[in-house]
């Protein structure tokens, strides 16, 4: 069984989030949460919350034990960029780009459920 959580519009650039996401890929949930608690990056807090949300979705909706879960997929994509201007010397201005990101987390217990294909055409 697989459960997911999505956190959007995080005000941390996707490039900085990827360092933290790569730490917890394919790990057990308990190991990942312990590792993120000791990671001194700002992105670790957001990733930890997303993992805990996915675990809560799995335990509530699918009645799966938390000890059986591991992170099956986790990735970060780039969100919208806020464009601002900062005054500079001699009446000029520089553009500042405040980047954001979207985080996607899937947790699984390793057991695949059978999915029915509706409306699929048989090849002949």
Architecture overview:
With 124 residues, the chain is of the alpha+beta class. It is built from 3 helices and 3 strands. It has helices at residues 14-24, 29-37, 43-61, and strands at residues 2-10, 70-87, 93-108. A 3-stranded antiparallel beta sheet has the order 1-3-2. Helix 2 (29-37) runs antiparallel to helix 3. It is elongated.
Helix/strand class = alpha+beta
The biggest sheet amounts to:
3 strands, antiparallel
The proportion of strand residues reads: 25-35%
- Share in helix: 25-40%
Compile the SSE list and pairings.
Elements: E1 2-10, H1 14-24, H2 29-37, H3 43-61, E2 70-87, E3 93-108
Antiparallel strand pairs: 1-3, 2-3
Short description:
This protein has helices spanning 14-24, 29-37, 43-61, and strands at residues 2-10, 70-87, 93-108. With 124 residues, the protein is an alpha+beta fold. The chain has a three-stranded antiparallel beta sheet.
Features:
31% helix; 3 helices; 124 residues; 3 strands; 3-stranded antiparallel sheet
């Amino acid at each position: 069984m697989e459960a997911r959580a999505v956190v959007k519009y995080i005000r941390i650039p996707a490039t900085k989030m990827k360092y933290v996401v790569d730490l917890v890929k394919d790990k057990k949930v308990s190991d990942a949460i312990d590792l993120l608690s000791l990671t001194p990056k700002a992105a670790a807090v957001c990733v930890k919350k997303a993992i805990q949300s996915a675990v809560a979705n799995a335990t509530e909706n699918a009645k799966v034990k938390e000890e059986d879960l591991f992170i099956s997929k986790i990735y970060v994509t780039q969100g919208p960029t806020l464009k601002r201007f900062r005054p500079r010397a001699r009446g000029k201005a520089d553009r500042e780009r405040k980047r954001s990101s979207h985080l996607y987390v899937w947790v699984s217990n390793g057991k695949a459920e059978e999915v029915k294909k509706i409306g699929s055409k048989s090849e002949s």
